[in-house]
Fold:
Amino acid sequence: MPPGRLTPFSGSTLFAIGGAEDRTSRRVVLRDFVRRAGGKGARVAVVATASALGPEILDTYDEVFVGLGTAPVVRLRPETRDDAEDPALAGALDEVDAVFMTGGNQVKLAGVVVGTPFGAALKRAYARGVVVGGTSAGASVVSEHMVAFGSEGDTPRQGMTQLSAGLGLLPGVVVDQHFDQRSRYGRLLSLVARSPSLVGVGIDEDTAAVITGERLLEVVGRGCVFVVDPARAVTDAHLAEHGAPLLVSGAVVHTLPAGAHFDLVDRRLLSFEETHPAHQLLHQTEGDAR
Amino acid sequence: MPPGRLTPFSGSTLFAIGGAEDRTSRRVVLRDFVRRAGGKGARVAVVATASALGPEILDTYDEVFVGLGTAPVVRLRPETRDDAEDPALAGALDEVDAVFMTGGNQVKLAGVVVGTPFGAALKRAYARGVVVGGTSAGASVVSEHMVAFGSEGDTPRQGMTQLSAGLGLLPGVVVDQHFDQRSRYGRLLSLVARSPSLVGVGIDEDTAAVITGERLLEVVGRGCVFVVDPARAVTDAHLAEHGAPLLVSGAVVHTLPAGAHFDLVDRRLLSFEETHPAHQLLHQTEGDAR
Structure:
C-alpha cells in the first residue's frame, strides 16, 4: 500500500452541497447523490423544513430526482417541534435509501428537528447507512456545532458569526456553504479560531463534500471544498473584543477541487485525480503535506 | 533571549498600505508613516504616477502630510518612461527622507518607473534607509513579482490573476491590497500556488504591513495583514486549465492584526501585543506555529 493511503473502509455517507446545485442541465452533483443512494428506483426523502418557499420546492426536487431515476420522493416538512414529534413522520425515514434536506434557514431546520423523534430517526437512518445529504442550510445542519448567521469578508473578526446546535452527524467538523460566492473565508476562520478542536469545511456552490465514515472526504462538482485545520494556530480569539480583527497564525488550509480525496482525521490530502493525474506530486510530498 | 525572537537588527523600511487609508480623522496609518520617516519636518516625496486623478491627488497628500508635521511634499509625477529618464526627477529622490506612492494602477506605475533612472533612484533611496511606502497600487509595486489584474472570490482559479515585473524592493514576496474588502483570498492563493517560492501578503484597507530589513513584518491600522506560506503545499497549478479551480493543499496561513510581529524569512509569528498581551500563547506554541 502506498504511504498516505487509507486502508479500505466503509461507513455512512454524508453528502453536503454548498447550495445552488445545478438542477436542470448536467446535474453532476445531484446525479452523484442519486448514484450513491442506489441509483434507479432509490427511495429519497426530501426534508423541506429550512425552505421559505411553499410546497413547490418539494415538487422541484421530486421532478429532479425522478428525472435522475429515483422513485417519487417522500415529501417531509415538519414545520414545528410538535410536527417533529409525529411518529408517522419519523417512521417515514426508516423506509428510505436517502434523505435530502433543502436549503433555506438552517437555524429553523435545526430548531425544528434537533432533539426530536424526527431528528433521532434521521440519525438512526444515517447510522444504518442511508445517504444523508442536503444543500446550503441542509448541508450546514449536519454539523454538531453549526454555523448560524454571519457576515462576509476575508478577514476573520470577533463575533462575525455564531454557532448553534446542529444534528451532529459529523462531529468535529463545522460545515459552511456558498463559500466562494459569499466570501466566507473570514467567517469560517473566526469560528475555528475560537474552537480549534473543529475542522472547518467551506463548500462552494454546485459542489459537494462527500464524507464517508466520518473520515474520507471526496469532492464532486464545479467548485472547491475548502478545509481549514486550526489545530496548531495561535490566536487571540479568547480575548479580542467584538468586531476586532482576529489573530490566527499558523492555520493549515486546503482548497480541494473535484478529484481530491482528503482524510478529515489526519487532515491531509490522500490523492488527487484529474484528466491529468497528479499522483506523482503527492508521492513526492506526502510526508510534508500536513 | 526567549526562543523565537529575532536578534536585534536593522534595515530599510517598506511601508505598504492596503488602500483607503484614513486621511482625515485619526490617520493612524499615515501618522505612523510620518513617524518612521523622521517626524517633524521630514521631507516626503509623493509619486502620483499610478493615479488617474489630476494634480489634486498631490494637493491632497501635501495637505495630509503637512498636517502631520512634514515639510511641504516633493511632488513627482513621471507619466512616461521618457519622464522617468529625467535626471532632475530621479535626483529629487536623493534629497528626501521618505517616498510615498499613491494608489491607482500599478501596471501603469511599474510600466513607467521600473528599469528607468527614476526606478533606480527609488531603489537607491530605499537601500540608503529612506522609508519607501505606498497605498494600494503603490503598495503592490514594491514586489519583484507584482500582482497585475484579477478577479474576486475565495476559491483560487487558474488564470484569475497575473504577475508582471515590479520594483523588486521586496524579493520573494507578492503584495496584494484591499484584501478583505475585495475578497482577494482566492487570487493570492492562485498566485503563490503557481510560484511556491513566493510568500503572499494581502493587506486590508486602512492597514499597513511595515517591513524592516526584508524580514520583520509589523502591522499598523484597522484591519489585518494576511500572509500565506505555500512552501509545503501540494498543487495542480502547473496543470490546471484556464478558469479551473485549483488544488492547493497544505498552505499555511496567518491573519495578523495590529500588534503582530511576523518573521517573513522563517515565516512565523514572533510576538503579539494588544491591550491584552497574549505572549504566553506564543511561548506555549512557538515551536509549532509554523
